[in-house]
Design goal:
transmembrane helix, mainly alpha, transmembrane, UstE-like, globular
Length: 257
């Protein structure tokens, strides 16, 4: 019978090797942005690697693999489409300018391996939830609904933003309609719902102690790589955004002020 330490250790090695390979590709292309579209796909790889090691997958394992596959592939395909032929993202260009010749190895640890470790840790409720064979119950239903709401929120927000940016007349303007009227970051809020939904499914099987994983994801979405990072310079680039900040919730949806 497969054990939790075996699952966790094998998946850490697997995702680490994959992201080292991606790092080598980024050196060849001189574009660290290739890591972004691989974020969602990395979770899918971890989920399927776990599923493949199970002797007899439970209903919970099947539920988790379906939810993570839908969420992860949609996100990766969207980011791949959005970033196609746009060059290296300004975040990585700034890092490249800051570190100069040492960027090649700095990027390995601060971009690629950091993301690999984060996705491995954040996906603990998925990896360990698949090992649990208890029958599906109310918490599983609640977690599935919350996860589906998150996927729908994220998908709709991305579609609305992409449609807005396609119109030349909107260049430099701020989207404040649709879901973006109620939260400045519907895509990040959608991610938040997905991972707390996944956690509820893990709790239903008994893995309540994996709560640190959605907590870390929430912290990064709100305080580090999500809202905080995006809005650190956006007012300088789009002065209208200050008015948008004053009237619209940053993260959790609510009526405009």
């Amino acid at each position: 019978m497969i054990t939790a330490p075996t699952i966790l250790s094998s998946n850490l090695v697997l995702i680490g090797c994959i992201f080292v390979f991606l790092w080598l590709v980024s050196l060849k292309l001189r574009d660290a942005s290739i890591v972004d579209p691989c974020w969602g796909a990395g979770f899918v790889i971890i989920a399927w690697a776990t599923y493949a090691q199970l002797d007899l997958p439970s209903q919970r394992a099947s539920l988790l693999i379906v939810l993570i596959t839908i969420w992860g592939l949609r996100l990766s395909l969207y980011l791949f489409w959005r970033n196609w032929a746009t060059g290296e993202d300004r975040r990585y260009r700034a890092m490249r300018e800051k570190h100069g010749r040492s960027f090649w190895w700095v990027s390995l640890f601060t971009v690629f391996l950091l993301q690999a470790v984060l996705m491995w840790f954040i996906s603990w409720p998925v990896q360990l939830g698949m090992l649990l064979s208890e029958p599906l119950g109310v918490l599983d239903v609640m977690g599935t609904l919350l996860c589906m709401i998150g996927i729908a929120f994220e998908t709709t927000g991305d579609w609305q933003l992409a449609r807005f940016k396609r119109l030349p007349a909107n260049k430099g303007k701020v989207l404040d309609t649709g879901l973006w009227r109620y939260t400045r970051h519907p895509n990040y809020f959608g991610d938040f719902c997905v991972w707390w939904g996944i956690y509820l499914i893990a709790v239903a099987g008994g893995a309540w102690w994996t709560i640190a994983s959605p907590v870390v994801m929430s912290f990064f979405l709100m305080k580090v790589s999500g809202v905080a990072l995006l809005e650190s310079t956006i007012v300088e680039r789009r002065p209208e955004y200050q008015e948008y900040i004053e009237k619209t919730n940053a993260f959790f949806p609510g009526p405009p002020h």
